[in-house]
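Please check the following.

. . .
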Amino acid sequence: MDWTAFETDMKEATFAAFTRLAPLIEDEALYAFCLQTTDDGWGIGPFANTREGLVVQTEKLAALMTISPHTERTLAWSPDEWRYVGFAGDAFMKVNQQVMQVADGIPDADMPSHVEHITDAIIAALQQLRARHSDVLDRVTLFVTMSDSDDAEALENASSESLNPPDLHRAFLQRWADPAN
């Protein structure tokens, strides 16, 4: 796989998705934007949430059950619970096709290296996005995650460190902490 071309395509896809997000959120306060993949690198897509989206999700769930502090944190920091899930997925069609074309031929022993290349390209794309839109993203937490993976939290934390200012990164590391302690 041509990783340089893949990274370029990833940057283009990320920029295109973020550009499409602006009219969706209008005047809402964006607080998190991430790119999610799977533990084998398939299915890369964008996720975003706003303060207003979080309130709506919390209110919907509160109508059905009592919301615990853990559930509040889950709604705030689990991309699958966010308002903008998989929007602009077609912007990632090219990179997803590139991954799928080679994935079946990768020996199991080489899969961790393959996925590391993919996540490195995703991080590079988000770094470029922050650099291009530093004015809009100055208080927005960026990170990379993996769906259904035991390694997701480690990837989220590591990517956050390279993508966010120190204060946002420190707050992100505390996202699962019980505020009562």
About this structure: The CA atoms of residues 40 and 90 lie 20 Å apart. The beta strands are 30-38, 45-50, 84-85, 141-147. The chain has a mean pLDDT of 92.
